[in-house]
Amino acid sequence: MQEVLNSLVGGIRGGTLRVVDLTQPLNGDTPILELPEQWGQTIPFKSHEISRYDDRGPFWYWNTFETGEHTGTHLDAPSHWATGRDKGTVDTIPPSGLIGSAVVIDMKSECDRDHDALLSPDHLLGWESRHGQIPAGAWVLVRTGWASRFSDAAAYKNADADGNSHVPGISKDAAELLTQQRDILGVGVETVGTDAGMAGTFDPPFPNHNIMHGAGRLGLTSLVNLEQLPEAGAVVIALPLKIEGGSGSPVRAIALVAG
After folding, report:
1. Of these residues, 80, 123, 209, 213, which one is catalytic?
2. With helix as H, strand as E and coil as C, how does the chain read?
3. How many C-beta neighbours within 10 Å does residue 158 have?
4. Is 80 labeled as catalytic in the residue annotation?
């Protein structure tokens, strides 16, 4: 086993394994999920300088920051949703449950044509026709091209004149297939949440959150650089802060890719 670990480190240092950063920068401009006014809201990321090699601290630079658990590239623990309230908080997820094979579903062309496009069982079965059954312990990542909108909050939310957000997501049928017929770790998306912008009007509302977290699975959001991953063969590592009792956390998500 030591040879395997040595080979992994050697591959990274030697360039035969690429490390792809799947994480968006976290700053005051990071788009955040906005809920209807009657519900509680998260806050934008804020950083406050404590000292920077000055009379507040002559040799060191550090900051405090404040933000919500679900800001930027972040992980949704099962307890984030009512159906998963007893399925685990972020601190109870074993480290092995944060590392898995990457199954990349490319929907970019479809989402360019239809901003309300949904991942369906046909997308998943199409992937399996090329690569075999989705492996146990996989992260299913949906490439929509939405990461290119991240620096423009209005384009990222993509709201119409009535305030309806037109953003792609995951269908009820796809979430059921992944949780009932496959053994995945969770799903990952380039959008602000794992459900579509119009998912509040679906039956059930927000079906991916409802089904995925009710089954004890995880969600990753606001990913970037999915176009650098192959459809199959990469490994994803997504490490949240170990917030006691937390419903989620910002993460530094990476992928290991051969070649």
Report:
1. 80
2. CHHHHHHHHHHHHHCCEEEEECECCCCCCCCCCCCCCCCCCCCCCEEEEEEEEECCEEEEEEEEEECCCCCCCEEECHHHCHHHCCCCCHHHCCHHHHEEEEEEEECHHHHHHCCCCEECHHHHHHHHHHHCCCCCCCEEEEECCHHHHCCCHHHHHCECCCCCECCCEECHHHHHHHHHCCCCCEEEECCCCCCCCCHHHCCCCCHHHHHHHHCCCEEEECECCHHHCCCCCCEEEEEECCCCCCCEEEEEEEEEEEC
3. 18
4. yes
Radius of gyration of the chain (CA): 19
* Residue 213 to residue 225: CA distance in whole angstroms: 25
By CB atoms closer than 10 A (0-12, 13-18, 19+), residue 159 is middle
Cβ-proximal residues to 200 (8 Å cutoff; 6+ apart), any chain: 206
Q: Name the residue among 228, 233, 252, 217 with its Cα closest to residue 77.
A: 217
Q: What is the bridge-based pairing of β-strands 248-258 and 74-76?
A: antiparallel
Q: Is the pTM of this model over 0.90?
A: yes
CA distance 133 to 153: 37
CA proximity to 76, closest of 219, 240, 251, 246: 219
Tokens of 47: 């950083």
pLDDT digits (tens, 9 = 90+) for 124-166: 999 999 999 999 999 999 999 999 999 999 999 999 999 899 9
Query: Which stretches of the chain score pLDDT less than 50?
Result: none
Q: Output b/e per residue, 209-246; b: 16+ Cβ within 10 A.
A: bbbbbbbbbbbbbbbbbbeebeebebbbbbebbeeeeb
